[in-house]
Design goal:
seven-stranded parallel β-sheet, alpha/beta, three-stranded antiparallel β-sheet
Length: 245
Amino acid sequence: MKITVTDSGDEFYRAAAWRIAAAIAMNPRAVIGLSTGRTTGNIHRSLCSIHRAAGFDVSKVTFFGLDEVTGVDRDYAGACYTMLRNELIDELGIPESNFLMLPVESDDFGVSCREFTDEIARRGGIDLLMLGLGENGHLGFNQPGSPLNGQCRLAEMDPVLEARIRRETGSAPDHRLGGVTLGVRDIMHARRIVLVANGRNKTDIARQMLTADISSDIPATVLQLHPDCEFLFDRDAAAWMEKEN
């Protein structure tokens, strides 16, 4: 188990961004999975800054999103597609053919999920997967209780997130919202994973992720079993480690 703790927020974001840059330098055709959220947005912007300075080739890299909100317009500001485009994809000039996303709408999400994972496999599988850590230990839309052997699928949305999205989109009460996500099994098939967590609000769940028994109650605990997973924290998220030492 590899744990890295940075001294500052800026160092945390740049360290995570350099993990992505290094993966591209090692393999210009790398397949890299990205997550969305408050933490990862700054990582993506930091990667863009590194790219502007270093100018490394990203023309053959494939980026894909771990998950997506369903039942919304794709150009909704909270859609993972739009967030990744605004934070990273457009800035790096990634062609649409090398930016893979699960759909916000589908006549058959089962088929769409299989097509998505089949395309990732066709490109050689996941070289690097960047994961954020939910405050309840979720990974993507794999909320507590999700099967640890689950594959890419349509999933229920956290009620707090659903309420916020309904407010922002003006969705009718009977309009179904949800999330579609890589499953835990898909996540564990990535060759390398970097799990990022920062802030005091992540201190307790970071501790549980690394010390609790592996259980679907905290999906992130399964990462203890991954052969090449780095846990990257800032000082606040890693505060529990100082208390125990």
